[in-house]
C-alpha cells in the first residue's frame, strides 16, 4: 500500500524527525511500534535546482528561455 502526505522535517534534540499527521494515523489505523517504510522526496524549487543565479538577464527573458528549453509554450 502506498500513502502520500506532506510533512516538514523538525528538529528533536540533536536529531531530525517527521510527524505523521493525526488524520492519517486515524484513517490508516497506525499504532505505536508499527513498522513502516518511508520514501523521501525533496520538494524542488528552481532556486534549489539551479542555484541562485547572478545574471543580468531580466526575469521575463529567463522565464521565456526556461519555457523554450522545457517546451512549456
Task: Give the SSE layout.
Blueprint: E1 9-12, E2 15-18, H1 22-28, H2 46-50, H3 59-70
Antiparallel strand pairs: 1-2
How does this structure look, described?
The protein is α+β, with helices and mostly antiparallel strands. The chain has one domain. 33% of the residues lie in helices and 11% in strands. The protein is built from three helices and two strands; from the N terminus they run E-E-H-H-H. It has helices at 22-28, 46-50, 59-70, and strands spanning 9-12, 15-18. Strands 1-2 form a two-stranded antiparallel sheet. Strand 1 and strand 2 (15-18) form a beta hairpin. The longest helix is centred in the last third of the chain and has 12 residues, at 59-70. The two termini are 37 Å apart. The model has no long low-confidence stretch (mean pLDDT 82).
Features:
two-stranded antiparallel ribbon; 2 strands; 73 residues; 3 helices; 33% helix; alpha+beta; elongated
